[in-house]
What we know:
Blueprint (H helix, E strand, L loop, with lengths): L2 E14 L4 E14 L3 E5 L6 H9 L6 E10 L3 H12 L9 E2 L2 E3 L8 E4 L4 E4 L1 H12 L7 E4 L3 H4 L6 H12 L5 H14 L5 H5 L8 H13 L5 E5 L7 H17 L3 E6 L2 H5 L4 E6 L2 E7 H4 L9 H9 L3 H5 L32 H9 L5 E4 L2 E3 L7
Parallel strand pairs: 3-11, 3-12, 9-10, 10-11
Antiparallel strand pairs: 1-2, 1-4, 4-6, 5-6, 7-8, 12-13, 13-15, 14-15
Helix pairs in contact: 2-3, 5-6, 6-8
Amino acid sequence: MSLLAELNDLKVYFYDQRDKRFIRAVENVGFSINEGTVLGVVGESGCGKTVTALSMMGLLESEPGIIDGQFFFKPSEEDAELIKQSLSRGVRKQNDYKKDTLFNLFFGLDRYVSFEENPFTIIKDSEKWLRRNNRIMEHIRGKNISMIFQNPEQSLNPFIPVGGQLTRTIKRFNREANSYEIKEKAIKLLRSVRLYRPEIVMSMYAGSLSIGMAQRVTIAIALCSHPRLLIADEPTTGLDTTNIYKMIELLEVLMTEMNLTLMLISHNIRIVSTIASNILVMYAGTVVEIGSKNYVMKTKKGPKHPYTEALVSSVPSDSDIKRGKKLRVIPGTVPNNKRKMDCCPFLERCPYAEGKIRQKCESACPELARVASQHYIRCYLFYS
Ligand SMILES: Nc1ncnc2c1ncn2[C@@H]1O[C@H](COP(=O)(O)OP(=O)(O)OP(=O)(O)O)[C@@H](O)[C@H]1O
Ligand code: SF4
Ligand SMILES: [Mg+2]
């Protein structure tokens, strides 16, 4: 299996005009995704899942946005040359923006941004950076990486029928195709996302679709361009349990049928674990645990971040539900993301932060430490 994407040390900040303070949305987030695998990204609301995905798509709306990091991606062969041309303007050494067949899509960011830790300040020429980033991302968005957004109804146009929205997107990526071929492709895509009677669905408007249908239509639109990586942000929101698992099954089938790699974002670690190869657990904008599903979901034995442990036990398994066990809320609240992270971010909610270890937990934020091959945890309990 070869490497498709590698995100390193992503830092994303926003600015709160009212408070006149920076919001730390994402801090040093990193992971890699091999072709044909599923990376599950989990964590509570506000932990930075969507911001991470939007950064990879170059779609952050507020500034300063990305201030540091590298995002290596392997584009299709036909786009590689165009991306190389955009990235290499004014650069002498190829190695600076390339690693084997992967390109660093954030290359050059340091020319537009600088930041100081104490007191925290960011200076960024956002206009110039966005102009550069858009030139690169126009070869990536859709054709190489496609995203299903968190609210399916909002990502569909309420005034254009489903068919119109699909054919418009197909046309954009298939300039040579005639209208008959485009319509056939639209119908085929609707069938592939298991929407029955696709000819009728083509004439429907977003307002008359159920949440499940709307979600399938957005998947069909995201697949028009045959992306290499599909980012699905909370694709099961609003669905009942039966439909949640049908949706996950569909994504799994599409991966094989369309040769896809998937980044699946969800609050629910159990749902993600049904198809994920690797799981990334985020908390307060940071990665607290990352590893293969078998390590991260391991019950009882083996190292597990206290937050992952709480996350797993907050969602009852199928057998728990049968026994009447309810969803358990993790006590406490997430830390204020406008303050410097000078202790473990999970400190105030952690049942293990007692006695001697607590002093360490209070002293500084722990590093993400390797506890096994391909398994990393950010917690003093697992420092050797
Ligand atoms: N455009 C923005 N301007 C200011 N702050 C933002 C913006 N977008 C996100 N944030 C903040 O960044 C942090 C991470 O947000 P993000 O949307 O990534 O969370 P999430 O993990 O996707 O949450 P959810 O599960 O609710 O979708 C939050 O504190 C959020 O309030
Ligand atoms: S470092 Fe301390 S507070 Fe943080 S998760 Fe580990 S034990 Fe809990
Ligand atoms: Mg989100």
